Amino acid sequence: MESPRTVSAHPARRSSLLPRPIGGRGGRCVYVRKRDTRIRKTGRCIPQAFYTRDPLSPPFHVNIIRAVRFLQCSLLVPLYQRAKVGSRAWPIRFEEVSPVQRPRPKASKETWKQYRKACQLHNLSTAFVESLKQVRQNFDLAGAVRKILVFAADALRTQAWQFL
Fold it and tell me: Is 16 among the domain residues?
């Protein structure tokens, strides 16, 4: 038996993380916040970990950390409509987005060509778009078919083709 915190691969069960009355309550819009985050790792044997810029380092001195990158999606609950508090973010999705493994410098030209093609197909932007589609499907399964899904995302990670 699954624990209530376990995220199942089945889409109908995965949508159980969303609140049940989402389709019939509130306004016309559902607000979702999407951002990427890095979780530091110290082990050298973690295959998903890679060296990246520390987001907390100052702009004049770049620090490098070993980390695993995730996309986090949170439902923004507008509590300010009922009380004198701000909105709260309720996490509904947390998925790993690892970069493509870089080949060795002496690898064949065919390997480098496959690497460049894989970088175009499996990057943070494409993972963002796929996640956006899955979140929309989960909201539809939860009864929010007529709701407008409003996404807030980091401006640095968005590209024009994501909104076409």
Answer: yes
Number of domains comprising the chain: 1
Tell me the C-alpha distance between 61 and 105, whole Å: 28
- Which domain, by its residues, includes 76? 11-158
Which sign does the torsion angle of CA 114, 116, 120, 125 carry? positive
Whether residue 31 is contained in a domain is answered as yes
Closest Cα partner for 94 from 3, 13, 7, 4? 7
**What's the CA gap between 34 and 36, in Å, rounded?**
7
Query: Does some domain include residue 128?
Result: yes
43: tokens are 């082990």
Please check whether residue 97 is in contact with residue 119, taking contact to mean a CB–CB distance below 8 angstroms: no
Identify the residue with better confidence: 159 or 5. 159
- How do residues 81-129 score in pLDDT, each as one tens digit? 777 888 788 888 888 888 888 899 999 999 999 999 998 888 888 888 8
pLDDT, position 111: 94
Q: Hey, is 141 helix, strand or coil? A: helix
